[in-house]
Structure formats: C-alpha cells, structure tokens
Amino acid sequence: MRHKWHQWASLLDADQDGIISSDDMKKTNATLEQLRLAIGDRRTALNADAQTKWWDDHIFKRGADKHISVEDYVAYLEGIYNPADMGNKMRPVITGFF
User: Quick one: which of 75, 49, 81, 51 has its CA closest to 62?
Assistant: First the structure.
C-alpha cells in the first residue's frame, strides 16, 4: 500500500522536489482540471477558493497552505489507513475535486 500512497503523493508534487507546496498545488490543479474535463463528471470547475480548501482539508496536514514533504504525507496516510474504512476516507478526497 505504501507504494500506492507514494504514487499519489508524487502526483501532487508537480515539480518532483520531494515537497508538496502551494506552487505544486497550482500546477497540479491545472492537470486535475484537464482530467476533470476528460471525465466530465462535474460540469464546472471548482473555484480557486474551493480548490485551496480541498488542498487544505486533504493535503496540507500541517495547516492551511503549509508545505509537507512527500514522505511526511505518505506517513500520514499510513497512519490513517484502515482497510475497512478506506472507501469512506478516500471517497471525499477524490469526489471533492471531481
């Protein structure tokens, strides 16, 4: 499972420097917006405030817009991992953006 968490965190680290930052957020949001358009599930994009809130709620675990290393984020995910409840925890992360 750690490998999958690391892949997810690496996707969020757009510049691949090992730190998930607000600059990565902007680059990743543009990529995710293209994916959202391809999937077509949500008809309109999330506004900038909603995108920032999504990142603050699900990614920046040290506080709003505070950078986190890929390894610290993976460690956080491992700490909350419960196979029986994973769908309930991860579904809002994905559906919140798309």
Answer: 75
